[in-house]
């Protein structure tokens, strides 16, 4: 019996690309890993294989990533492979550990300063010092700008130029932001505290400026692994370079197509430029997707194949490894309430059919979109949880607005149209119907209050019907008091605590997660891409957000958008990132749950995948054939010839060109797919109900083996009027 060594056992079950990554020689290694391709397995197996084969000592390894959850998963997997002692931490945790350890040496015996949990309080004080009054949202945006600057190694005096060069959408005039930045740094020093960026800088300073510290750190850590390398910012890269100290035993793993955090200072440039910065680097591409069905993978490939720019240079074409699954659906609805109700109904049916609620996710571009889905899921009695944000009615700005609306019922005349009354009341909490402010947090606050105005417009469109007598009734316009009661009822319904439920999350919050069923909603121009994406680079990041959303789905994928935001509202176009599909099919009527008299039309477009490789089919001829033009044909040549002869006779009898009966592509599709039933025949693009009625019986007979003379015995095919 052959006994394999522990290091060889680590290689068991790896695919060829994963094995190449695991066994790559010491030195710079870049693993380009697409979504669902087993990157964590590859890097943990690489660490274990090297340790078990005696190439490295586990205690000399430092693996860094971006979340404590990912670091814990790394440690767990490495231990399961039989290796102990590897340090797997976030950048901040690794830096904090080193700074605390070396603080007495670096600070002349003094303890490390207190670490700020949040910048907001000091930023608020700094803004007041330079004459800016800020609320919490504005302070969060200023704090975000300071974090971006410090992560990008930008000093206060350099901020104005750096912000202009980076095309930053600053929350205030750049010179004023720079003043707040300066005042913030002064307040920090006077209070004897540091922030997280200071901690990273202290770790860099300790290694770069203190030879004894550098010697000890570099003696401890000799082999480095960096996960999600596309998300590294300049400050983190500076720390990594300090740790390396010119050595090159570095393994990085990343996917440029999942670069979605550039607004925080993260940049994929270090991943893109890795082979140039590290000569003789080994580059391995992981492209076998074990997460999603070939249908989902094919759509993801189709979306990202249109990408342009720097990140597109490292674009990966994934290959689905799971058994085939259902085709993704593209659904088009008349308005957002109809879209939300349809999503809730589908979630209900999935759960009733056995899919756990926790394996379902509804993903959207901004958190303000969640309210419609919270309401629809509540009415459908579907439990849900909100990922990465508070529930809509629990948000501070919404609670404050509801107080303002209740107060306004005493001061605004009752005959004031409801939308006007709501806008007037919200001005008391600083909201304006004009363009939203710059800055992420302030804009999110504005959008949440704008969602209340939209709710008011929808609510005002359904006046209350009061009974007058047995044969008569009268409509009463809804008032602000009615609306505040409606909001209170919605809040009460949605505050029921849940332990397990459908996940509602923004696309950014969904990064790194996966579910059996994923609903990507609100895929309209102006939402995805957002209207705030002005540059080519910003638009491309929006495309990558959709790609990330698609690749979260294992089995079922739904993509939808509403032709209008609210009933009767202005028409919108679908997102430019969606495949350009043939939408000439029929329509369906669907109840929306918004009232017995309201049954808006929805359209359903099936996204077709290659029946051989699973790639999404976009071109009309490819959709007819049901396969890519490069995939092997399984055509029945004898059947194809009989179909051609039959078509020639029919066309001659009807005195029309042959293509009017069936095109060449349709004949090829028939000879390849060989339909046996009418429903299979009509599924072929180009064969609608009319042609099914005219030719269906003959075609099915030919496919079944009949001769041309059997189906055309002196018969003319006159078209019925």
TrEMBL record:
Residues 567-603 are annotated as: Disordered. It catalyses: Couples ATP hydrolysis with the unwinding of duplex DNA by translocating in the 3'-5' direction; ATP + H2O = ADP + phosphate + H(+). Pfam families: HRDC (PF00570), UvrD-helicase (PF00580), UvrD_C (PF13361). InterPro entries: DExx_box_DNA_helicase_dom_sf (IPR013986), DNA_helicase_UvrD-like_C (IPR014017), DNA_helicase_UvrD/REP (IPR000212), HRDC-like_sf (IPR010997), HRDC_dom (IPR002121), HRDC_dom_sf (IPR044876), P-loop_NTPase (IPR027417), UvrD-like_ATP-bd (IPR014016). Signal peptide: none annotated. This is DNA 3'-5' helicase. Belongs to the helicase family. UvrD subfamily.
